[in-house]
Design brief:
binds 2-acetamido-2-deoxy-beta-D-glucopyranose; eight-stranded mixed beta sheet; 1 helix; 337 residues; mainly beta; 19 strands
Length: 337
């Protein structure tokens, strides 16, 4: 089995990121979690049911687990939304939407919430994708209104290795993102592991703390109010302490990822699921739903890791080689307020 190189990324929950000093390949051989009592990927399955057009999909396996989730693909899978069984807008919200706060070592105890997927292109280039899962996305406020709240959130960073040396990193941000030269990225106190700041609520990934302006695609507000992401030194989350590892490859000319686990106990089939990891955008009859120029308060859940373009070739961004994909030589500090 291919072994992973020596550098890992750290993401931070809610805010802040750090790295835990780890210079070894640590492949966690996590036993399958108790799906019902934990708050991780499996908990998302235990607390949701597959729906299309707000109706439960008939003929789906029950229970759905990380081992059989991809059976949904044959049931019009790309139109399926894993939809919360309980109301997601009750006060207080269901506990499972709150995820797990990392402990003092940075571990999300009892919750596997990171999936590390490795594409070894066989020519010295290896991409390690760190997929961060969050049970809920709080979209943040613009002019006092919330937008883009949704169930389930997948964000990722990717480290590009060349002959074992990390060269560049991609940080996903709201369907887009930024690439940096690895040497430019702030490191944890061990000087080795890169830091990822996960924005409060939206979980967009940044290399620095502070306030980050970004635009919302499709929301063209006429009064010049920018939506911002906020990151700071919040919780330390070391995602590799509780992660599932898999390799990914692509048959020549194929765009379909082929996932494989590195051992016999890590669930891997779920990575093939092509549907959405949260409720479909609530329709206008849903209490509290509103939109401003097509930007909704409650939006749809995201697609999973398989949709993140895991075959990037020369470029480090998801569009691979087909669009300008600039690797920045410096990081920009967030604005401090
Ligand atoms: C995220 O932002 C919300 C709204 O401003 C705030 O209530 C909450 O405390 C923030 N969370 C963290 C972890 O800073
Ligand atoms: C799949 O779902 C879409 C969206 O609801 C629907 O329009 C389509 O008819 C479905 N296809 C099949 C074969 O059920
Ligand atoms: C992949 O496909 C291309 C185009 O069909 C072909 O030219 C190339 O030789 C193939 N490469 C391998 C390794 O099979
Ligand atoms: C709106 O959503 C509800 C579920 O939240 C569903 O029962 C209803 O059929 C939907 N209405 C339309 C017009 O799609
Ligand atoms: C390695 O292989 C990938 C996939 O075929 C290709 O896109 C990339 O350009 C290659 N990189 C190098 C350095 O040859």
């Amino acid at each position: 089995m291919a072994s992973l190189s020596a550098y890992f990324v750290i993401a931070i929950l809610a805010t802040q990121a750090y790295c835990v000093p780890t210079s070894r390949n640590e492949r966690r051989e996590a036993a399958l979690p108790d799906f019902v009592n934990t708050y991780d990927l499996g908990a998302q399955l235990a607390n949701t049911q597959p729906q299309i057009n707000y109706k439960v999909v008939e003929g789906a396996l029950s229970p759905l687990t990380l081992d059989n989730l991809d059976s949904l693909n044959a049931l019009n899978g790309s139109n399926i939304y894993l939809t919360s069984i309980e109301s997601t807008t009750s006060n207080p919200q269901p506990q499972w939407l709150k995820g797990v706060v990392p402990d003092s070592t940075g571990k999300t105890n009892g919750a596997v919430s990171c999936s590390i997927v490795v594409n070894d292109y066989g020519n010295g280039t290896v991409d390690a994708f760190y997929m961060y899962f969050y049970a809920y996305n709080w979209g943040g406020k613009v002019i006092g209104l919330n937008f883009d709240d949704h169930i389930g959130d997948w964000e990722h960073t990717m480290t590009r290795f060349s002959n074992g040396t990390p060269e560049a990193m991609w940080y996903s941000q709201h369907g887009a993102g930024e690439s940096f030269e690895f040497s430019a990225i702030p490191k944890y106190e061990d000087g080795v592991r890169p830091i990822v700041y996960s924005a409060n609520g939206s979980h967009a990934n940044y290399a620095t703390s502070g306030t980050h302006d970004h635009t919302i695609p499709g929301l063209d507000l006429p009064f010049g109010v920018a939506l911002v992401d906020y990151t700071d030194d919040g919780y330390l989350w070391d995602p590799i302490l509780s992660a599932y590892y898999a390799s990914v490859s692509f048959a020549n000319g194929s765009s379909t990822p082929v996932f494989a686990a590195y051992d016999s106990t890590t669930p891997v089939n779920w990575l093939n699921f092509v549907g959405k990891w949260g409720d479909e955008q609530y329709n206008s009859s849903y209490p509290g739903q509103y939109d401003v120029f097509g930007q909704y308060r409650y939006s749809s859940g995201p697609t999973g890791p398989e949709a993140k373009n895991l075959n990037r070739g020369e470029g480090t961004c998801p569009s691979g080689d087909t669009a300008p994909c600039i690797v920045l030589p410096v990081v920009t500090p967030g604005e401090k307020v």
